[in-house]
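Forwarding these from the shared drive since the link keeps breaking.
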Amino acid sequence: MRPITIATFAVVVLAYSVPAGLAAQASSPAPKVAALGKVSGSCTFDKTHTVKFVDGVALQGNLFFKDKEPATLVRVSNLMLGAFRPDLFVDPEAELDGMSSGPKNAYNIITLSIDKTGDLEGLGPSGSLRTGDWTFTGGTVKNGRVSGTVSGTGGATGGDTCRITFDVPFVGDYGVGKPLPADGGEPGQAMRSLWTSVKNEDSAATVAVLGESWVAQAQHGTMPQFVIAFVNGRGNRVVGGKLYGDGRAILDLEFVMGMKGRALVLKQGDRWRVQDVIFR
């Protein structure tokens, strides 16, 4: 199932009654999305589809060869990826380009696979891997980012040409998560506390469990869109998840009307805080 955006989900759920303390915020304009990475250049695939890149992120894993050592996966796009919360996409079953499939959109997000020695294995749209006469420099991970330049031609008939320069942040890690208990453990409790605060229309309690980057705007009356979409907080459940390192958890969620989702919960200081939610 293709992930859907917060805005789409909100259109559905806001038909129900919205707590007075949050209703006014539902009509607030969505904040502008800044690029997560620094990306320039373009590719032409099959001599017909040209894509100019504006944003990018990197992840650890291997979507192409699951029996091989994890690779660095750089995803460059003609979309501002922050709007799609790529930090939540931390498993091969929830690929970034799953949201942009179809003949007209198959080239929105391009994957570059860099092996552990720093060599480019290949690149391609929609999860494909196209080898070729690529010239690649860079690929070293430093301070949570990876940068490089790739150029050349490739594809089965030499119909692909690319020149891409990127400097992008890591936003996820495949294969290292430790399963959380069914109730999500301490991160799950933070999620439930958020739902309770929404149900009780207690904005101070809501702010107390939001990620630190949300606090200032929430204190001034602008809650994140995912909080508005929770409506009254009833009927939502944490059904498991994974812990990544000591302070980053991804929770699996179930909502009313059969919707599912995933939440990013971070340990900031001595408290777990909800950073983001995607509805799927």
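-- next protein --
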Amino acid sequence: MSKNANEGCPVNGGCDMVSCWMSKVGVTRSLLITLGLLPFAWNGLALLANGVVGIWKFATTSVGQ
């Protein structure tokens, strides 16, 4: 037996069945964090887009009157 049981494991905290499988298919911790934050970024983008549309409507209706 080798000195380090986790020698072939790409995960720092140890290698259980799930973390080894996830690392083999390319799922990393940073990818999981990014996917977790993606809905919040989408809400911010939608809020920004609604603000631009509101300003555009305000500007175009004010000029036409």
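Residues 29-64 form the longest helix (36 residues). The chain is about 70% helix and 0% strand.

- D.
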